[in-house]
Amino acid sequence: MSTPDVDVDVNQNQNQNKNVKAEDILCPLAEYEECDFSKLLEKPRLLNIDRQRSLDERSLSELSIGISPRHATRAIDPNSSRFFEQLDSICSPVGRRSGFSTPRSQIGFDPHPMVAEAWEALRRSLVYFRGQPVGTIAALDNTEENLNYDQVFVRDFVPSALAFLMNGEPEIVKNFILKTLRLQSWEKKIDRFQLGEGVMPASFKVLHDPVRNNETLIADFGESAIGRVAPVDSGFWWIILLRAYTKSTGDTSLAELPECQKGMRLILSLCLSEGFDTFPTLLCADGCCMIDRRMGVYGYPIEIQALFFMALRCALLLLKQDDEGKEFIERIVKRLHALSYHMRSYFWLDLKQLNDIYRFKTEEYSHTAVNKFNVMPDSLPEWVFDFMPVYGGYFIGNVSPARMDFRWFCLGNCIAILSSLATPEQSTAIMDLIESCWEELVGEMPLKVCYPAMETHEWRIITGCDPKNTRWSYHNGGSWPVLLWLLTAACVKTGRPQIARRAIEIAETRLLKDHWPEYYDGKLGRYIGKQSRKAQTWSIAGYLVAKMMLEDPSHLGMIAIEEDKQMKPILRRSYSWTL
């Protein structure tokens, strides 16, 4: 791990790319990103308000402002002949800021007093390497031992990156993308085993040598992690963030760098390789994602499958149409069709499907089997019958032979909405479930990372008696404020911003007063987590992103992709909304 850091040379590509437009790289696959955010708010009143924008003002005169009782957003006419021009023109242009940098935001919001405090805390978390900001530290809590909270985590940095992009500060995001790309090229070994070339680090830190007066980067690819598990999600978040940067700034030159193109191909090679799998989903070990401890998510966890789907769709928009790129594009398209069908058919649970599983026959042996995974109806947990509303549904935690994990996982379901892995009907059903199960999933502090918690014998067997993951704590039913940004993005995309507004208002009653904890404990999320770090950066950034996205829903464009109409599933079941 002593390989010196060498900056990727971006200058050599700038001359040839300086005249490249976003359409040159995105248009060949534009059908994968047709956006329809016409329902950002329900029943908006329309006002015409002039606004200065720093990028692509060709259709601003056609846009209008929709005001809800407390918040505002622009309404877009999906039937307009210039609909896609309208959407492009409002996608978070570079140089534009929102937040506390002005007395009032550009469309007349009174910023919450917490916003200024949050920005100050976020800037204090910046990590510098050779004079340039390259990320944000996980937490600035000096009351506890550092462990690895003094490092820059790939997954943790995503909400920070989105906050800076929304605030018109893309340079730190660009620096982070290039530095982690350089780390990817390092040799990666755990004991005597070498990891795949495309593996991205879980985290890195900057080491200062006062004697030699220099700085070096040290990366962790899983060799220092609890359980020694490589981070499967890091590569996916990297691709998603690269697309967010490109969408936000309109700068395609970064994604077009040969180094970035190669980095994407290496990540995709790990995921698209052929083996013994009979499913299009990715087989993973426990602890390979946000839930980085033993929690029974081994197999085919929803978080990884949703991120995998999202990363594949982002890669389609970023890969160049050269010989190498075309080969991967063909493989991606095939995988997306198989993955979307598999997830929508077998991971989806609503009242109708729950009743079908309850009545499953077992030991079926033929191509016409209904119970394809030989799931035993007696394995259905009692809680799921009370949890499932009449109108609502969600993607369950895991599906594998003779095993279905019926737990609700917030991150995977929100990413399913943002990536359009969930159909519009399924997205609506997920939001219906959140509203119906508000006390269980939101309670007194948003948002449950999973539901319900494991207890007693189940907790002992599945977690190995993990003292950090006791019932209703940490990953085992704990409440994580960082998930606010994902919930808000999903709410905006589905036209249900009032749900996000309600959750944010709950969080605002305590987050600052409690000094931005990492997570909360208890069935309702009432108590600061027993091992929760204070000044947790992604709690801070998640709040800021949620606030800015409600203020200006056009920011959604950098993190959401609309449904690919070519991947419409052949539905064989009645979903709950047809009951």
Distance between the termini: 58 Å
Instruction: Specify the structural class.
Output: alpha+beta
Radius of gyration: 23 Å
Name the helicity range.
Answer: 25-40%
Give the class-level CATH name. Mainly Alpha
Question: How many beta-strand runs?
Answer: 18
CATH second-level architecture: Alpha/alpha barrel
* Largest sheet geometry: 3 strands, antiparallel
Report low-confidence residues grouped into runs of 5 or more. Answer: 1-108, 570-579
Strand order of the largest sheet: 1-2-3
Overall 3D shape:
globular
Q: Work out the helix count.
A: 20
Mean pLDDT: 83
Beta percentage is 5-15%
Q: Any idea of the CATH topology?
A: Glycosyltransferase
How many structural domains in the coordinates? 1
Catalytic activity: Hydrolysis of terminal non-reducing beta-D-fructofuranoside residues in beta-D-fructofuranosides
Family: Belongs to the glycosyl hydrolase 100 family.
Organism: Gossypium mustelinum (Cotton)
GO molecular function, one term: sucrose alpha-glucosidase activity
What features would you describe in this structure?
The protein has 20 helices and 18 strands. By secondary structure, the chain is of the alpha+beta class. Helix 6 runs antiparallel to helix 7 (232-249). Mean pLDDT is 83; it is low at 1-108 and 570-579. It starts with 10 loop residues before the first helix and ends in a 28-residue tail after the last helix. The chain has one domain (128-558): Alpha/alpha barrel (Glycosyltransferase). Strand 13 (398-400) and strand 14 (403-405) form a beta hairpin. The longest helix has 25 residues, at 323-347.
